[in-house]
């Protein structure tokens, strides 16, 4: 094709890449990379070498442009130009729910975020420090009787319990077991081929979502019943989200403060998934890095022992104690920097 000199064509602004096969695009190659155990790094690496830092592809039925330079990532994520909005792929929305923070439209996202961010205040989080510490201590004491410990599995066990406890005060028993199993199915389905055929990973994920929604539904009804009876409240996120019911704020109002039940349910599931996998993966990487850097482990252990000497053996750490761990805080930050726990943040371009 001939191009006029000094006259840029629209094609000059389209990132290089391949659309792959008709209909499926490059979805199969993307899936093969994910299932290879290395994640989709190989998929990105091969195309980066071929096309450069910015390339386009077609996966899950839509054009995706991958950018991997720091400058482009900053420009897109800061979104000062207002040209992008958060949007995960359609099949993820079907699993976590269309009202989830991960999938909501720009305006809706603002409303949801405003309500949900209140839950993460310092006084609120400080209530959970003791509970999280107890979970870790219980888990570690079970290691004594094990010949092999798979750190990621143990960390997932701790973080799933921590999320279910913080969100809905579910900490043991049948409900927790079901949630653990079903949440794992939803996570597996999130990057599976979106085939609604019985037996596929995606289909199992959708079925698991239905069962999780039913558990949360029952929990909401039970909370409302207890409120009507004036029974003791739970100290968890679900209770605080439902507490808005009591303020009598109009459901229909465009600038409503409270969330609908469907929004609460989608976002409870979103928080379990967003909090569980990320934190477990961060813990696992940190254990690996500490093993590889024994001098860092030594300084970290000394900081902890010094704190332990100051406190009684039967007490749990407080928020002040956490602020008294500058070295531990650096170890966490450096592990997060090195590990890229969330390697891929999709955004929807609002303009070409
Ligand atoms: C080490 C642990 C964690 C890491 C590395 C991490 C990382 C991230 C990142 C990078 C994002 C932005 C994704 C994007 O913009 O597309 C994100 C979003 C989010 N995370 Fe986390 N996260 C962690 C723990 C948690 C926990 C414990 C919770 C819940 C209790 C949580 C809930 C969320 C939610 C709800 C969002 C969506 C926020 C929004 O769209 O406004 N995360 N996380």
Keywords:
352 residues; mainly alpha; Cytochrome p450; 2 domains; two-stranded antiparallel ribbon; 14 helices; 60% helix; globular; disordered N terminus; binds protoporphyrin IX containing FE; heme binding; Cytochrome P450; Cyt_P450_sf
Strand content: 5-15%
Rg computed from alpha carbons, rounded to a whole number of angstroms: 23 Å
- Supply the CATH architecture of the largest domain: Orthogonal Bundle
Straight-line distance between termini: 23 Å
CATH topology of the largest domain: Cytochrome p450
Q: For the record, what CATH class of the largest domain applies?
A: Mainly Alpha
**Strand order of the main beta sheet, please?**
1-2
How would you sum up the major sheet?
A: 2 strands, antiparallel
User: How many β-strands, per DSSP?
Assistant: 4
Mean pLDDT figure? 88
Shape: globular
Q: What is the N-to-C succession of helices and strands? A: HHEEHEHHHHHHHHHHHE
CATH superfamily of the largest domain: Cytochrome P450
Low-pLDDT parts are 1-8, 248-254
State the secondary-structure class. Answer: mainly alpha
InterPro entries: Cyt_P450 (IPR001128), Cyt_P450_E_grp-IV (IPR002403), Cyt_P450_sf (IPR036396)
Keywords: Iron, Metal-binding
GO molecular function: heme binding; iron ion binding; monooxygenase activity; oxidoreductase activity, acting on paired donors, with incorporation or reduction of molecular oxygen
Protein name: Cytochrome P450
